[in-house]
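The pair is quoted verbatim as follows:
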Amino acid sequence: LLKLATTLDGRIATRTGQSQWVSSPDSLKKVHWLRERVDAVMVGSGTFAQDNPRLDVRADMLGREPERQPLAVVLCSRLPENYSAFDLLRERPESTIFFTALDEAKARKAEALRARGVTVHGLEGQAGHLDLRQALEFLLQTHNCRYVMCEGGGRLGLELLRRELADELLLFVAPKILGDSQA
C-alpha cells in the first residue's frame, strides 16, 4: 500500500522537505487506523532523516489504545550514526528493520544498531536503488508481513510504482496549492 499526501499542485513536501503540514487531522487519524491494520510501515532515508518518524499507532489518534503496532522499516543506503537523535531507535529498536546496501550491513554502524535490538539486513543493488522486491520478500518470509504500507518519500514511492510493487495507492489530496516548483 503506497500512501501519499499531496497538495492540489502535486507537492508532497516543501523545498526543505517539510511534509507534516500537508495532511489534515482527519487524514492523520485515518493513517493511524491503517497503521494498526498493516504488518509494517516503510519509509526511505530522506523521510527518516527529515521527519524523525515514529511509525507507530498512537492512542491519541485512535481515541483508544492500539491493539497492535506495525514493524518500522527504513530503506537507506547509509545507516544513521547518531542513534539518540531518532525517536524510533530510542523507543522501538526491537520493532525496527533497516534495509541497506550489502557492504553497509557489514559495517560497524550496523553492528551498533544490532546491539540495540534493531534488525539490519543487506540488500543487493547500488546506492539509491536497493532491491525492493528482495526487501518485501524478506519481510514476508521472516516476519510474515503480508501488508506493508509505504508512507515516506517521493523517490521510494516512485520506485515502488516503477517496479510494480505497489498493489494499492492511497492518495490524500489537500485543498492547498504550494506554488513552488522547487518543492
